[in-house]
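Entry 14. Ran structure prediction on the chain below.
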Amino acid sequence: MKWSDITAIAEALFDKHPEVEPATLRFVDLHNWVIELDGFDDDRTRGGEKVLEAIQAAWIDEAR
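Output, structure tokens:
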């Protein structure tokens, strides 16, 4: 998984943390959870605010 795999990351986070309300998650925590996902294989430093916002929005959609 790469940072550009927004939907796949959101689905994996939803599966791993179903009890979490993604809208309340801090970006620092979100970043850490993404890089800890099984199958994540990208530069850890590339997860900027815009990417994290997109992941968070996709995760919110996934949780609905």
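The CA atoms of residues 16 and 61 lie 16 Å apart. Will compare against last week's run tomorrow.
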